[in-house]
TrEMBL record, chain B:
Coiled coil regions, renumbered to chain: none
GO molecular function ontology, one term from the record: ABC-type maltose transporter activity
A cellular component term, taken from the record's GO annotations: maltose transport complex
Gene behind the chain: ugpC
InterPro entries xref list: AAA+_ATPase, ABC_transporter-like_ATP-bd, ABC_transporter-like_CS, ABC_transpr_MalK-like, ABC_transpr_MalK/UgpC-like, Mo/tungstate-bd_C_term_dom, NA-bd_OB-fold, P-loop_NTPase
Domain of life: Bacteria
Organism name: Brytella acorum
Protein family (similarity comment): Belongs to the ABC transporter superfamily.
Name this polypeptide is given: Sn-glycerol-3-phosphate ABC transporter ATP-binding protein UgpC
Every ABC transporter domain range: 4-234
Length: 304, 369
């Protein structure tokens, strides 16, 4: 509100502008307060519980626990298994969905008969909700008695494999990859299509074959889109829960328990709220470390 | 280095014929410009020569060898695209190196070639730059450099200057023409800009709707357009065209009566059979003479005088709906609404018959180069 602005604009009333700012803050506050309450309160409560003895079935155990919840958790081999499974799930699904997605995106960029229908089909798994797709895979496709794969194997004289029992983590990974492949294809296909046709033709005239064009022209062009896909998928893959819950319930044993499922099991199957809270805090720390690296990588890639 | 020969080349998209039988011979070292309005098929023709489009029918010969079924990389061509089509993630050096690397040329040889080309194109300071850091003119030069390092038999240019501003375009035109003189490489250049065509070409090919309207040197096209389309297309401001009908044809020339009532003698080969038919009289703005004259005089009123400094374009109304443009070096005193007298020198008049085909002129101009 300095003098120069007043020469052209009608002089603003000083009292009115401050009260305007006040009422602005007032109007904003419901949204801000709601967001704060929704994120800060659970965070603080989790932190609080993680330092408490808090077991739902044993009310005699209460009081301050110090770091014992953390100590108990970090020395638990199940926790290490859950960490390993989380990493395996994230990396495995990323490799399958980004690798397969890139190849499919290049494939679906070609002209072929029925491309429109094929594109719809390749994208459709993304619209199936996680619980439903996990059930589909568990009962319809992979069931050792009446699943499609069992029938296929029997019809060529092989003994059906109980996939979820024998290879629990790999099977969960496959189901989640099936869900996320369409997303990668969708993003990467639009990226492939945005490649300048004259650039492709220039490469063609430069003598680049299909492999060289993919390696030197298409892949560098896709690098930004790939980092975006990796970032978004990582955020979701760290918290995969429904697929594990529905198919294996983390088992056999803890063979397919990831961090998210482990926290759930601690809190609501073993009723150890304190221990589960400690797991939650560790999950938050890990997610933030990953997010920091990812955001940096993406920011660097988007700048160039 | 190479000759290119097109024999009755045709291109059909689904059911529509885009190129309707083009035959053309391009000599070794010649700078040929394909020119025509948009949609005339000039770019398609170039892309067919490059191998980016299939040839539906006809033969394409490079150095006498039929290359219809040879892939684009193996035809020995290099192309400069309208958008330059530089690889954005590679620097200038890598852009030029890409084709050589794919051809498995040894590292030292590659380096030598690229450095030599960078020197001719004044790109040395930018070899480490990415295309995104360069100006339009510099990118253009990189695209040309990328073509040159491959040492191709034929250079193809697809409207390479249309993304540049007017001043830079003029400068690049000179650079391209100079470069062509030094490399003496066979070049095919597509443009819709007739000034680029006129200034750079050894031979201009005027295309319309997939057929060649005329092939010739720039001055041949200017002085002896074969038909109305070429007459209209070549020259700026465009040729004045007036409807007329033939009233007499004898040894003195052909007399026509214009729709404006004026009668004009034209120095074309007389054809008695055309007496009474309607024709089109054409005369270029720069050939209309100002002032009174005994031969083919006319009068009009100045609608608008565009003073360009060295030249003046006078838009003159002869009668309602019939305007002509007169280009003159003087005319400074003339302003709108001033009456003006002019004449059409018979030797500069063109006559086109009902089908738009030019009648042969009596005196063929001796053409320089």
């Amino acid at each position: 509100m300095d003098a120069t602005t007043m020469t052209t604009a009608p002089p603003p009333v000083r009292a009115g502008s401050t009260s305007g700012r006040k009422s602005g803050i007032l109007l904003l506050s419901p949204a801000v307060v709601l967001l704060l309450v929704w994120s800060i309160v659970p965070l603080l409560l989790t932190l609080w519980y993680s330092f408490r003895n808090y077991n739902l079935v044993d009310p005699t155990m209460h009081g301050f626990a110090g770091f014992s919840n953390y100590w108990y958790l970090l020395t638990d081999p199940d926790f290490l298994e859950a960490l390993r499974n989380t990493a395996l799930l994230v990396v495995g699904v990323l490799v399958i969905s980004v690798g397969g997605g890139t190849l499919l995106a290049v494939l679906y960029d070609q002209e072929f008969f029925g491309r429109g229908i094929a594109r719809v089909l390749v994208i459709s798994p993304f619209f199936v909700m996680p619980t439903v797709s996990a059930l589909l895979w568990k009962n319809l496709m992979l069931h050792p008695i009446y699943g499609v794969y069992a029938w296929m194997m029997r019809s060529v004289g092989l003994t059906p494999i109980d996939w979820l029992q024998r290879f629990p983590m790999a099977t969960v990974m496959m189901i989640v990859a099936w869900e996320w492949l369409p997303f990668a294809v969708l993003i990467l296909l639009t990226a492939v299509q945005s490649l300048d046709t004259e650039q492709r033709e220039a490469a063609l005239l430069d003598g680049a074959g299909p492999v060289a064009r993919f390696r030197h022209i298409i892949l560098p062009h896709l690098s930004r889109a790939i980092t975006v896909v990796v970032m978004i998928e990582t955020i979701y893959l760290l918290t995969i829960f429904a697929e594990i819950m529905v198919t294996t319930a983390g088992g056999p044993g803890v063979a397919s328990t990831n961090l998210a499922y482990m926290i759930y099991a601690r809190a609501l199957l073993q009723f150890d709220v304190g221990g589960a809270s400690a797991g939650g805090v560790i999950a938050i720390v890990i997610a933030n470390i990953v997010a920091m690296f990812l955001v940096r990588a993406v920011a660097r890639n988007l700048e160039a | 280095m190479a000759t290119v020969e097109l024999k009755n080349i045709r291109k059909t998209y689904i059911s529509e014929e885009i190129i309707k039988g083009v035959s053309l011979t391009i000599e070794d070292g010649e700078f040929v410009v394909f020119v025509g309005p948009s949609g005339c098929g000039k770019s398609t023709l170039l892309r067919m020569i490059a191998g980016l489009e299939d040839i539906t029918d006809g033969d394409l010969l490079i150095d006498g060898r039929r290359v219809n079924d040879v892939g684009p990389a193996d035809r020995g061509l290099a192309m400069v695209f309208q958008s330059y089509a530089l690889y954005p993630h590679m620097n200038v050096y890598q852009n030029m190196e890409f084709a050589l690397k794919l051809a498995k040329m040894p590292e030292a040889e590659r380096r030598g070639k690229i450095e030599a080309v960078a020197k001719t194109l004044q790109l040395e300071p930018y070899l480490k730059h990415k295309p995104g850091q360069l100006s339009g003119g510099q990118r253009q030069r990189v695209a040309i450099g990328r073509a040159i390092v491959r040492n191709p038999k034929v250079f193809l240019f697809d409207e390479p200057l249309s993304n540049l501003d007017a001043a830079l375009r003029g400068q690049m035109r000179v650079e391209l023409a100079t470069l062509h003189r030094r490399l003496e490489a066979t070049t095919i250049y597509v443009t819709h800009d007739q000034i680029e065509a006129m200034t750079m070409a050894d031979k201009i090919v005027v295309l319309q709707k997939g057929i060649i309207e005329q092939v010739g040197s720039p001055l041949e096209l200017y002085h002896h357009p074969r038909n109305l389309f070429v007459a209209r297309f070549i020259g700026a401001p465009p040729m004045n065209l007036l409807q007329a009908h033939v009233i007499a044809a004898d040894e003195q020339g052909t007399r026509v009566k214009l729709v404006t009532g004026q009668s004009v003698t034209v120095a074309v080969e007389p054809r008695a059979d055309l007496v009474g038919t309607s024709v089109t009289l054409g005369i270029r703005p720069e050939h209309v003479r100002l002032g009174t004259s005994d031969v083919n005089p006319g009068q009009g009123v100045v609608l608008l005088a565009e003073h360009l400094g060295a030249l003046t374009h006078l838009h003159v109304r002869i009668s309602d709906g019939h305007d002509i443009i007169i280009q003159t070096e003087g005319g400074d005193a003339l302003t709108a609404d001033a009456p003006v007298a002019f004449s059409f020198p018979p030797e500069h008049c063109h006559l086109f018959d009902q089908n738009g085909v030019a009648m042969p002129r009596k005196a063929r101009r001796s053409l320089a180069a």
